[in-house]
Design a protein that fits this description.
Chain lengths: ~400, ~160
């Protein structure tokens, strides 16, 4: 590897890191505006707008992330006197670095560089899936260490909760991904994307998709599984003692991890950058303008498709956050160990049986698998629902109606 | 459980398309109620004379001692107000005022009225004191006839507690 290749790699890494942080910044805006609309509010719409004639404002709030960043930069940087100083200072780094390096193994699209590589896939490693699983769960070290080093009972509880929760949902997450791996027959992320050209994995692996969504939400400790930072119980959770940019780093790692989880879901279940028609469009451009232009069009379109799918899943995360209240801790553990893990195992069994019995790539068995998954999930929700106790008192109004 | 989840999600989704209830304050000001108690105004009569006769009953009624009234004798040739005296200085400390409206109740000539202006903010304590020039309405904004009891300047009666206006 000569120095030019290293330089190109460095520039690419810088671009990726900046893209991830920008994505985070605008995801916070996206979430705040959407959450506000879900709750009948307007949301941040002041910072940065384009004034239009007639008093109308365009893009209200586009500079809100910048304003937030400036505010956090100017906050006082406090280190608690009894904190374990170096561990305390390192914890935000421990949280952020895994969140950023998740992205290298995700194929963000398909932009062939002409030498058999892909500009939009940084590390096409053989065990891409294992890498993703390892890095997403290593991020919890940052949280646990932060909770420990703050020398604060609330932080400590938040950190312990985070470790317990991530360990519990790791299993269901890994098993739900195992179904996809068995379906595609490869651990390479781009291999999984290529295997979904005809039919996306969400159809045969519907159960796996649902389990992955739930487990990944718990893995990134997001509402309704955000017991780690339950304000009512734990003040701010593990980041209670963190302020200024150190807090911002925790915040950033959380959101980048959330987007990365959605991106992984897109890669595994929604066909990555695949969208019908892109191949033909790029072939047409290649025919008239040459290979480089064709590759560029291919790359941009697949990247666009990937980002659109990720945005849709992010919308789903915000929607769920706006709807579902936080679960209790025993419910969380119950859901993880008693419901999700056996379901994920069942999914693996179904995938294995179908893989042995039916030929690879047949469409009807795949749809049948999806239907079976749907039925299993509906049955589970019906059976596992908490028993409704009969009301001891009859309400006056319902009596009057009868 | 699934039904409840779908119900919840559809409910929040419906709210996504509703108009937000937020009133975007500096641009849009929500009208206040008719009897809202905001900043005080010193009223005038129809002919432009001040209603305030400097009796300081408002200052006496004020539970937080926010009002200062210093009366002076009217010049009979060019009176500021009907009756014998007028308020030479009239100040309200807006930091002390609790907007209870007792001054309004106490005023025998309906001179002081709590109006609808509620944007009272200032950068220092000094500007919290609103003096007569800030409180008095313009000359052409007067209303109402001067009651007969206030027109008998030469007899100099003490005004009754509440004049029938």
């Amino acid at each position: 590897m000569d120095w030019i290749a290293i330089l190109i790699l460095l520039v690419r890494c810088l671009v990726l890191a900046l893209a991830a942080t920008t994505l985070f910044a605008y995801f916070t805006l996206f979430e705040r505006r959407l959450l506000a609309r879900f709750q009948n509010r307007v949301g941040p719409n002041r910072a940065g707008y384009i004034p239009l004639p007639g008093g109308k404002k365009l893009f209200g709030g586009v500079l809100q992330p910048a304003a937030d960043a400036v505010k956090l930069f100017f906050k006082e940087d406090v280190i608690p006197a009894l904190a374990d100083r170096w561990v305390y200072l390192m914890a935000p780094g421990f949280a952020v670095v895994p969140a950023l390096i998740i992205w290298v193994a995700i194929p963000l699209g398909n932009w062939p560089d002409g030498n058999g590589g892909n500009w939009l896939h940084y590390a096409p490693i053989d065990v891409g899936i294992l890498y993703l699983l390892a890095v997403t769960s290593i991020g919890v070290y940052g949280i646990a260490i932060a909770g420990w080093a703050s020398n604060n009972k609330y932080s400590m509880l938040g950190g312990i909760r985070a470790s317990a929760q991530v360990i519990s949902y790791e299993l269901a997450l890994g098993l739900s991904i195992l179904g996809v791996v068995m379906q595609s027959g490869t651990l390479r992320t781009e291999g999984i994307v290529n295997a979904q050209v005809g039919i996306w994995n969400i159809v045969p692996q519907f159960m796996g998709f649902i389990i992955f969504l739930i487990a990944s939400t718990a893995e990134v400790v997001r509402s309704p599984f955000d017991l780690v930072e339950a304000e009512q119980e734990l003040v701010g959770g593990y980041n209670t003692e963190y302020g200024s940019m150190k807090f911002a780093l925790f915040f950033m790692s959380e959101y980048i991890k959330l987007i990365a989880m959605n991106a992984i879901a897109v890669t595994l279940f929604l066909g990555g950058g695949n969208l019908p028609g892109i191949e033909q469009a790029s072939a047409a451009i290649t025919a008239s303008y040459g290979v480089t232009a064709g590759n560029a069009v291919m790359g941009l379109m697949t990247l666009g498709a990937f980002l659109i799918k990720t945005t849709l899943l992010s919308f789903l995360s915000v929607w769920i956050r706006a709807t579902v209240p936080r679960v209790r801790y025993d419910q969380l553990m119950n859901l993880g160990w008693v419901i999700l893990m056996p379901l994920a195992l069942l999914n693996v069994v179904i995938t294995a049986v179908f893989g042995v019995v039916f030929p690879v790539g047949a469409v009807v068995p795949q749809i049948a698998m999806g239907v079976i998954g749907l039925i299993v999930i509906v049955l589970t929700t019906v059976l596992a629902a908490p028993k409704r106790t009969k009301r001891g008192v009859t309400l006056v109004r319902s009596q009057a109606r009868n | 459980m699934l039904g409840a989840l779908i119900k919840g999600l559809s409910t929040t989704f419906k709210y996504l398309f509703k108009k937000p209830v937020t009133v975007e304050y500096p641009e849009v000001k929500r009208p206040v109620r008719e009897r809202f108690r905001g900043r005080h105004e010193l009223k005038r009569f129809e002919n432009g004379m001040e209603r305030c006769i400097g009796c300081a009953l408002c200052a006496a009624a004020c539970p937080s001692d926010a009002i200062l009234v210093i009366p002076a004798e009217n010049n009979p040739a060019a009176p500021n107000s009907p009756g014998e005296r007028y308020a030479a200085r009239y100040e309200i400390n807006m930091l002390r005022c609790i907007f209870c409206g007792y001054c309004e109740d106490a005023c025998p000539t309906n001179a002081i009225v709590l109006e609808h202006q509620y944007e009272l903010s200032f950068y220092d304590r000094k500007s919290s004191i609103y003096d007569k020039s800030m409180l008095l309405v313009p000359v052409d904004k007067g209303h109402g006839e001067i009651p007969p009891v206030l027109q008998q300047l030469n007899r100099r009666p003490s005004p009754p507690a509440q004049i029938d206006l």
